[in-house]
Amino acid sequence: MEQQGSILGSLMPLVALFAIFYFLIIRPQQKQQKEHNAMLEALTKGDKIITTGGLIVEIEKVEDAFYTIKHIDGSTSRLAKAFVSSKLEE
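^ thats the sequence. predicted structure below, dont judge the formating
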């Protein structure tokens, strides 16, 4: 009986550490990822976005996995959805 108490007592700090790790790191990161995915789904033609490379471009066409974007000089290219950092709010 005494040994079961010591095993339970030695596992409690580990459980507490995991709970702290979950609520301070994992949960906020999951929330941020959900918000980013919702933002990606809401983007439409004409929206200005900031890419992960820091470019500010305008969306010309929305496809399944890509956006056709227009640069400031008028040239167009395709950008994978994974490389959109944020929507530019003016």
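Residues 44-90 form a domain with the SH3 type barrels. fold (CATH 2.30.30.140).
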